[in-house]
Design goal:
CATH topology of the largest domain: Rossmann fold
Distance between the termini: 35 Å
Helix content: 40-55%
Structural class: alpha/beta
Order of helices and strands: HHHHEHEHEEHEHHEHHHEHHHHHHH
Shape: globular
Oligomer: single chain
CATH architecture of the largest domain: 3-Layer(aba) Sandwich
Number of strands: 7
Number of domains: 2
Number of helices: 19
CATH class of the largest domain: Alpha Beta
Largest sheet: 7 strands, mixed
Length: 438
């Protein structure tokens, strides 16, 4: 049953982030009564794992009510709380300001995938149970890597699989027994994807993190009124909430009664609360920037072949922002350091190529052009470099360029976007693709 449940929590779509934003805007005031008392149980373990200490700069991403941010500030950290829900941040700012003598937390309304922070500017990035709510967790990991200094640490928590078997299973069993289990559910990312240590480690290593550590942190949900379990999930926006919302009145009454009976069974004695025991998964990883991660070897300075290596070393060690401005590399838009390495090499190769080689490459791309001779090389080089960047930019960045250049397409396929940009950016646009066959 657990596997069938997990399989229903399948894929993210474009409107997932919109649904998440609407939910958090609407439920900001009720979070403490529903989930806040659970997530706070992991705050101390999270801050200890990332070695939060006096004077360190820490960013709490998807900060919500800012429990982690507040605890970090009380420990002496210089804290930034970042969330895309203005209502959440407004409530958190009012609460934190009232509880703390000094205003040591900076609040920023922003998306986890596009943090308005300088590269290599913070020591710690934390995220308390926010990752399962991101449409593109990889975009968050890439941003965390970008803003962390060498030696910096990323830490985040997610629900463990026992949350599925101990809590969600209780609800879904009641639905299967008394309701309609085949309700159409809104598409969403795999909720327990990063509950698996192997998946987490493999994903994070692609973004340059090393020494990935996963540990389990126990959580206990103490329910005094057995009806509380049903009510908590009835108002939830996720797929379990959608499953309950799809039941009729009679089914809901039967489901609520069944869940109350199952919850009551967790009470050890009449005066004790019902205890739902499960765990969370706490992951920490450190940024260790070095050329070995890129599979490169340092060579003798000065030769043309060493230029990409020197460029990458400067990128890795200190000068991401400067290189982005002076070399034309769109580093802030690239998903990984590896893609920056590939693009740096290609830029260097193009800059060293003679005019004929550039013209031949340009011709193979079939880019419409009418460039005057005096500016031909510079124009060809700029366009070829832009094409090289398109080859490695993530899909969401390609779509941004399509919008900027007014290239008509609704495609989410990389190759389709790439070809349309090449064919339309400097000439007449391609006709829109035909509608899909029914």
């Amino acid at each position: 049953m657990a596997r069938s449940l997990a399989s229903r929590m399948a894929f993210a779509t474009a409107d997932f982030t919109v649904r998440e934003h609407q939910h958090w805007q609407k439920t900001a005031r009720t979070y403490e009564k529903t989930w806040g008392f659970l997530t706070r149980q992991c705050d101390r373990a999270l801050l200890n794992a990332v070695q939060c200490q006096q004077g360190c700069s820490l960013v709490d991403v998807a900060a919500g009510p800012c429990y982690v941010a507040e605890a970090a500030a009380k420990a002496g950290a210089v804290v930034t709380a970042l969330d895309f829900s203005k209502n959440m941040l407004d409530l958190a700012q009012a609460r934190v300001s009232a509880e703390m003598a000094s205003h040591t937390v900076r609040f920023i309304e922003a998306d986890a995938a596009r943090m308005p922070l300088e590269a290599m500017s913070v020591d710690v990035v934390v995220c308390s149970f926010g990752v399962p709510h991101f449409a593109e967790p990889e975009a968050f990991f890439a941003e965390a890597f970008r803003v962390l200094r060498p030696g910096g640490c990323l830490g985040f928590t997610v629900w463990g699989y026992s949350f599925l078997t101990e809590v969600l299973q209780l609800i879904h069993d009641a639905v299967w027994a008394h309701g309609n289990p085949h309700v159409s559910l809104p598409p969403a990312p795999p909720f327990f994807r990063f509950s698996q240590a192997r998946t987490t480690k493999d994903t994070l290593k692609r973004f340059g993190f090393s020494n990935v550590q996963c540990q389990r942190v126990p959580v206990c949900w103490e329910v005094h009124d057995a009806r509380e379990t049903f009510q908590t999930f009835r108002g939830w926006h996720g797929q379990t909430g959608a499953l309950l919302a799809g039941q009729n009145t009679e089914q809901l009454a039967a489901i609520e009664a069944a869940i109350a009976v199952s919850t009551e069974a967790k009470r050890s004695r009449p005066s004790a609360p019902c205890q739902l025991q499960f765990d969370s998964v706490l992951t920490t990883e450190r940024v260790q920037l070095h050329l070995a991660y890129l599979g490169l070897e340092l060579g003798t300075r000065g030769s043309e072949e060493d230029q990409p290596k020197e460029l990458l070393e400067r990128l890795i060690l200190a000068n991401c922002a400067d290189l982005w401005q002076t070399k034309g590399l769109p580093l802030k838009r690239l998903p990984t350091i590896q893609s920056a390495a590939e693009l740096a090499k290609e830029f260097t190769r193009l800059q060293a190529a003679d005019d004929r080689t550039l013209a031949d490459e340009y011709k193979r791309l079939e880019i419409p052009t009418q460039v005057e001779a005096p500016t031909k090389r510079r124009e060809l080089l700029q366009r070829l470099q832009r094409v090289a960047a398109w080859r490695v930019l993530p899909v969401h960045e390609l779509r941004k360029d399509c919008q900027e250049l007014r290239v008509s397409t609704s495609s989410e396929e990389r190759e389709e976007l790439f070809q349309r940009l090449i064919s339309s950016a400097w000439g007449p646009q391609m006709p829109p693709p035909p509608p899909p066959k029914k």
